[in-house]
Amino acid sequence: MLRRSSPASGNTDAPAGRREGFGRALGLGLITGAADDDPSAIGTYASAGAKIGNPILWMAPATMPMMFAVVYLTAKLSMVSGRGLFDAIRHFYPRWLLYPLLSGALIANTVEAGADLGGMAAALGIYLPFDPRWLVPPIAAVILALQILGSYVAIRNVFRWLALALLAYVGAAILARPDWPEVLRATVVPTIRLDREFITLVVAIIGTTLSAYLYSWQSNEEVEEEIALGRTTVQQRKGASRAELHESRRDIWIGMIFSNIVMYFIILSTAATLHQAGQTEIASAADAADALRPLAGDAAGALFVLGVVGVGFLAVPVMTTGAAYDVAQTLGWKASLHARPREAKGFYGLIILFTALGVGVNFLGFDPMDALVWAGVVQGFTTPALLALILLMTNSRRIMGERINGIALNLLGGLTLLVSTGAGLTLLYLWLI
Q: Does residue 344 sit in helix, strand or coil?
């Protein structure tokens, strides 16, 4: 079997086997970027467009480099160390640091998965004549069947196609007929208001675009791709050449650009319709879809629903499987979608558990928006801590060898850490008052 270079190697040429693997893996960044535009995020972006209008469009291009930084850093860590994120933390750092980070990630993933399941059901409920909550269990069952019965390669390929459902928002925005000169101006000239409503939405956008589940998912995708090439041990997976890292950077840039284009057109579609009509109170993606129908036509509303449901089938398993990876790696269990359920009972049991908890969020009387706020507060503290640790790990020669971060990546990662920390503290302040 062809082996990659070790972390300390100066080899700049990727082995042929690795290049072939990356050819098949092209689109990992697309999956991660699409998962970032989950139904809860769609609700946030739609609410921002409805309340603020075009002046908040600049947030999409502004957050793109930060998204790239967090996703690429985790991808790089896994490519060089051969380990998933929480496996690396368990291996290189003490338990007192590992467990709080794990707790924060699990709370955020579970609550957001539940909110997304509810969002998908609510979107479908626009066209179905019964309580949409009862759609949550069958939706969850279909998602579980894909995760448990499908192979990793099949799941990855399904996710790639589901990502394309988000292009529906481009169509929805075009059907809304925005004022394009004004749109261009709002995109390139940032508008900042110091009122509570504007600051709250800016913080919410930053929080949802830098969600911690992206870190874990991207790192574990990298490991799964290695296993698909027959590299089943950490030692076989260790190391990455400059060419491999360059390929990963390109793929992740493509994914983050895609994600931000989608964010942009979600904001634009509601800014051009709901905000212009004075309909500024939108609590969810389903509310936005329902409100768009009389203003932009049934086609626009249907496209909005298509995007919510399509990306939900991608985002929910990213969250529940990501949580299962995190716990299994913390406990030292086998954790791979390449393994059959009987070969990794604990891992698949965790996927079922977190999916069931997500379903339960919709039936236990919790207000989904309140639950998301609580999860956001928890994530506002754990996500910056996790990012800081990732920066430390990717600058450690013990872990990365010669593949430590360069100055530019450290500056971008540091800026992202400052912004995410500021957003978390601001969210806590707004929540307390």
A: coil
